[in-house]
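Board notes, transcribed. Complex of a protein with adenosine monophosphate.
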Amino acid sequence: MNILLLGAGGREHAFAWKLTQSPLCTKLYIAPGNAGTQNCGTNLSISPNNFEAVKKACLEHAIEMVIVGPEEPLVRGIFDFFQLDEAIQHIPVIGPSQEGAKLEGSKAYAKEFMAEWNIPTAAYREFTQANLEEGLSYIDTQTPPIVLKADGLAAGKGVLILNDKEAAKTELREMLSGKFGAASSTVVIEEFLSGIEFSVFVLTDGNNYKILPVAKDYKRIGEGDTGLNTGGMGAVSPVPFVDQIMMDKVETRIIQPTIKGLQARNITYKGFIFIGLIRVNNEPYVIEYNCRMGDPETEVVLPRLENDLVELLHKTHLQELHTLDIQLHPKAATTVMLVSGGYPEAYEKGKTILGADAIKDSIVFHAGTKMTEAGVVTNGGRVMAITSYGDHFQEALAISNKNATQIHFEGKNYRKDIGLDLIE
Ligand code: AMP
Ligand code: GLY
């Protein structure tokens, strides 16, 4: 099968790494990919948001399956674009329809969906410019911290947690006046939940679902979970505090009603659902849905999956997921992200990266990297994810941390404490 994978991050390198292990994968193309995916297949210099260019590449390379890594093409409707075009409607697209992608693309939609299906989540209200005054009064009735969320996609910056009401009111005004463009023309204000977060990944074909390995990512730039939010500085899988009792609650209270809700709304959804959860008093609550896999969670989830990924995704398309069982790797995995100096604020690109190829006891997934005549250079904030296996995550962490010292580029930064808060 010829496969086209869309995206350019560490998540996509992990997908590419896993897909090429399948005997069912004939040729793999990645658009646009990075210096790591180039070793798994052919990079195509195409933006995943340019659907016409994606279509052209599909026809040119006789693509038989498209796998969508990031959310943006899904939220923009790439699934529907394929369905509506006779020339490419035979090509399965792994990812939800545009309506399904609203679970990530609109926080207000996701909250309303959860309310309808009684899925546990923080209490909320939504506001626009038309009822701004009501929003300001609502903030007065709340006890800080106050959580404000831009309704639409805001490149991971659309959630603000304010410790005082006046600051929250100022933010609400600014958001509704276009702080995040159209993404914040609606704002969700929700109850603050205090607890520990984890991520559950589900692959669904619309009728059936499979639960993938659970993971926890580390979003803050600094050790001890301090400093600014990032795309993710590392992840572990499994997550020790997420036991079978917790997973049973997640499955019956959250996963099953989510799938039933999608079916009841006639939403076509053949792809991944990433459920961001928080444990409050030992009960799971949904913080958010994403319509794709997580990054860097994928860099620990896929290494722990023993199944043939092409087969899993093909069965997803055929709506035959019930015929397969998920096979887990017995070891734990930890990934440590190397980032550019200055990230998540301004940083420089184009720094030469040395030492990655010599690493043999970890899997080095490229994220923001690029191949140039002078070799591999940095090309983003998050540069490489170093994934290791161990009997437990600390053992895996020690290997990743050791190897983090073996990869060199100017300004390299990383957290050495991924998972250490989980030691009981
Ligand atoms: P989101 O983009 O919805 O994942 O939110 C980003 C981060 O904000 C989450 O990972 C949480 O750490 C935090 N957050 C979001 N909603 C809440 C909430 N209701 N209570 C506490 N923290 C939250
Ligand atoms: N690691 C969080 C995300 O992918 O959204």
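The pocket of adenosine monophosphate (ligand 1) is lined by residues 122, 147, 159, 190-193, 197, 276, 287-288 (CB under 6 Å). The mean pLDDT is 96.
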